[in-house]
Records
---
Amino acid sequence: MVLPELLAPAGNLKKLKVALDYGADAVYCGGKEFGLRAGAENLSREEMHEAIDYTRQRGSSIYVTMNIIPHNMELKSMLEYLQFLEEIGVDAVIVSDPGVLYLIERENLQLPIHLSTQANTVNWASVKFWENRGIERVILARELSRGEIEYIDEMTEAELEMFVHGSMCISYSGRCLLSNYMTGRDANRGACAQPCRWKYNLVEENRPEESYPIEEDEGGTYIMNSKDLNLLNRIPELVNLGVDALKIEGRMKSVHYVAAVTSVYRTALDKFADSPEEFAIKEKWQKELNKISHRPYTSGFFEGSPGTEAQNYKNSSYIRDYRYLGLIRGYLPDTKTAIVKVKNKISVGDELEIFGPGCQVFKQNVEELYDNQGSRIEVAPHPESLVKLRVDHEVGENYIIRREKDE
């Protein structure tokens, strides 16, 4: 069985490495320029070299987003950046603007091109058009049903990629003007303020000082606030659809998110390939997806146009039942000690969960804690500090440490 490529987000170099360590076949990232996630750390040119080396060592692929809508003044520097990406050998660039495609053609750059979901591709004729312009892969709009995707695959030759997990946007494939209009931050240039997550009330034209809740809720109504996409339960259908890549959204999400979501989908895909007839979604996989920071889940457009169940009208907050505490940077087998880079406070007496590739999970009581100089401490409160923690089981680099939040 040929599985679709599992494509994971890499908002920075650390997340790129975690995504690959947890089973991604490929990663997508942005440079410091020309991507649609200005809020992500993104990769410098030096880091891009390191990222290429890391992906090559693992036989994986790396795609770089170039999907802003550029203005005239940016085209010269964009061309120079495209030439840099060609030189270092990225596996593809992700573009949405025809002008960027024209620059690549005009300069005869040897860069495979993937068409961004920002191009709003929802029919087979559009895919054929882009095929004829040399596009190797089309990232389909999220607003497609299973049947529509199947028909596009039947009618076209280009590789197809679809989103299977992560945030959803009220606007067609993210083509939103609200942020620009309300805050001056352009969503189509990577700086979305996410006004779709804000509270809204109804105002009558002749009574501008009076606002009315659209539903009976004192806090207002989140009329544009989508739930998060989650297609884990559709693994057999996704594999049989004929798409070439399954994409996880989230370049601005945490290391914990990248590790958990990538690990769950990797495990599920491999289990299906091993035994399709006996395959069943395990409850523990869904529990792992519930432990990351997320909004309530929906299957989006996969079964057809969603109804009100795909929206969350009560609030825009995330469900955060677990706190990400740190990342394991090394393991000393002689003393069963993990070297931990701290993100949030770890204290003696805490009951932790340690999570690793393949959805490995075990509980760990913190009985002893040491600073990097070997002195015993009761609490590690400082982010980015290194501490040593005795563990009951062998662990590896980039294992996740987390703790269930107190009620």
---
Amino acid sequence: MHDMKLGILDQAPISKGSTAGDALQDAVRLAQTGESLGYERFWLAEHHAMLGFASSTPEVTLAAIGSRTDNIRIGSGATLIPYYSPYKVAENYHTLGTLFPGRVDLGIGRAPGGPAEATEALNKEYLKNVFANEDRVAELMGYIHHDNHTSKLKMSPLADPPPEVWMLGTSVKSAELAGKLGMNYCFGYFMSNAGDMREVLDTYRNSFTPRKEGQKPQVMVTVTAFTAESEARARDIAMSSIVWGIERERSFGESGENDGLPSVEDAKRFELTAEERDNVEKRLQNMFVGTGGDIAARLKSLAAEAEADEIMISTNTYSIEDKLKSFELLKKAMDEV
């Protein structure tokens, strides 16, 4: 188990009473801490017009993070490809890969990552591009790997090695496309029906076509985890994130004071309906909440089931100190398993 790689997926959440600037500085600090603890990679999600998150432009923040770290891999989880020109995305990530050689990942997805108004503002042809996703991802892979035979177009700069490309998904369709194009695959356990995992990963491996000699399918699984000194404390920290989700659902379509992560104390005071209480229990079951030893054992079991090369962890907390402690306790426990 010592060689199980661990990664961090951050969303740069904004806590109530703090600012987007604080959230982005916390993301830098988390990446630095992750590097010192021995995490393999640090990814930033992409969200649009969601006032509780400060990460609308991962590629810009990654430049700041890369310059303040030395060896942890940095990347997007995910760049939402239907919004953008594949050529421009390749330029962005080749530039990052030139600045930080051998450290850059490009995770791609096709979700909207925000409300319909933001989708419309970002790209009026979003739906058309979703339908053309396979061709657009193939075009992107050609640019990334300097082997786009359909075009004589040259690119500068060209990173050597090129960015590592991961498809993020939860469906058979995304797994098949990743396999066919020789991409790595990241299964979003934290946002899916976990029962689908085996079928999706089998599809990926069975459809895998190496892009270069000796290349093998790579699988990562992303989970939500909260680790603390006691199970009760871990649950309290997790509840802050869960209550935030419920607040957002209640005020769907509105913006305002519900847009930040509540403190542990505020989350405890939050009154849930009976239906919401049931929902909380379901959410907790899909998360990894507890002491380091408990979570390490569960993650080891999940990794074996998925035959995963790596586990990536998402942890949204009100306090950056709780978040750093969670990643520290988890890494220590995983190293001991």
---
Amino acid sequence: MFDPGPAADVEYAAAEGGGWTLRFVRDLRHPPERVWRMLTEPDALARWAPFTTDRGLDRTGPATLTMIDGSTGMPMEAEVLLAERPRCLEYTWGEDRLRWELEPDGAATRLTLWHTTADRDFVPKIAAGWHQCVRVMELDLDGTPHPPVRGQDAMHYGWADLEAMYRKTLEI
């Protein structure tokens, strides 16, 4: 049974230059350096993220992030814009822009994701997807790994309930 863990602290706003930005915040029991590795190392990303990467995301420059859905992969162009170990990672993913901020809190980390997308209706869907992915990351960090929750498989792990919860919370 997959325990989705606590709801993230979320809000959204119109993005400068168009689109909408979701702010998604979770507190993790692990130090920023460990969380940074989960966000940047290809082997670690493959264990929790909705994509795989052709290279480490710990340096600026182009990359390919391949969205995974079952046995299907869809490569998407990406560009790492900022990589300040272990506190800030920013990259594009297709048309979207993601900024991960890691703030130390004793031996723990406050993880804040800013995800900018064009369509306001996608904001609660994005929140539900990242909720599942960050939970899988957290389980991996805790030493109790769970297979990645990606694509249509997310429906078997409570994605619809999470999406409805975030839609209500965000009033979208």
---
Amino acid sequence: MAFASSIQFCSLQWLLILLCLGNTFSQSIVKTLPGFSGLLPFKLETGYVNVERSEFFYYFVESQGNPLTDPLILLQIGGPGCTGLTGLFNQIGPLAFDSSTYQAALPSLKLVPNSWTQIASIIFIDAPIGTGFSYSTCAEDYIVSSDTNTASMLGKFIRKWLEGHLRFKANPFFVGGDSYGGLLAPIITREIVEGNKAGLEPFINLEGYYVGSPHTDTNLEENSKIPYAYGMGLISSRLFERAKRSCKGEYLNVEPTNLKCLEDLAKISECTGNLNIHHILRPNCSLSLPMPNKDKQARRSIEETNSRYNRHRYLNFWCKGTVTEWTRCNDSVTYGSYIYDVESAIGYHKYLTDTRIKVLIYTGDHDMRVTHISTEEWIKSLNLTIDDDWRAWYINGQIAGYTETYKKSKYSLTYATVKGAGHSPTEYKKAECYGMFERWINNYPL
């Protein structure tokens, strides 16, 4: 199951840049980047942290506010297998591609006005192993790479990272997760909680975690898509009611003898199958490309290239001690060796809501990959007390989405929808998401 973003990097040109960034020692300060004029107006550090036999590569952007007191965030991106650069350039980092220069030999970079690094220091991690520049010197480590193994490794990663960055030891610490990283974030957070309890050093000043468009429970997410499609006007009320009766609310694991249900699901698929499920209002690029006059030839070329590429990546997956080929989302991780050993992360959220930390969960209301319906359903299962009932929240006098807050003791869980956003919200509504984060991190209501 791939939770990679539909937005792709300009691979050829940026591979060259990434190789430049990748030629680092354990830590390197990057002061300039191709495509950006002059010195970077923020501190960017790249490097490796060794965890057992694995080398985790990271991009660290120091807060542009007060780095010695501002929050420190470890961000896990989705896929699994998508590089932390996705978060840095596409979501909450201080730089983005200038789309007006995409036809140039080298695309330009521009500063982002709503970067979360204005008020927080962020570690963008390449994880699990095999993602981005992260690698292992032992082939066995790729075989055992899994949800729980990755979370355990990243719990060790952050303590070792802090050992080399002791000036951030006292900063309030948060784990962030996006898309499939939303499943990993609470598992990583629990690793940190348990490590603190066990007296591991350095102690991590954990204050909370947040997840955006979080993959949490496959059954809930898949079964929510049909009610979501009806609610968004994508299927008729007649078809929806008929499918509810024939499938009895279970749309994922349908018995092959239930022909009425299968027929209804086929009709629903006809209505929704060609949508861009990451944002239902956006074009489905796989249908619009390549250009019509080169359609057959281009499609055949793409299919052949992808076939060769996937075989090449799989056969050379055990290359040890280096990263010979960089890709934004490594299919050899997503569809190959990675073990999906956590079917539902709800239990981790239940555990964490009993601890002394705060939580932010947000979704895009036009996301059909992980619908807001499924997220609201598992939040309800946590049996928390509503502290601030469902209401609109605003940015610049306009409704930015809807929110409600749950409370347990003095610590709270804030849930928010982001109006008009897809999967993931920070890619579509940067100003709104920045405002949401700024209020939450400073303990203000949305």
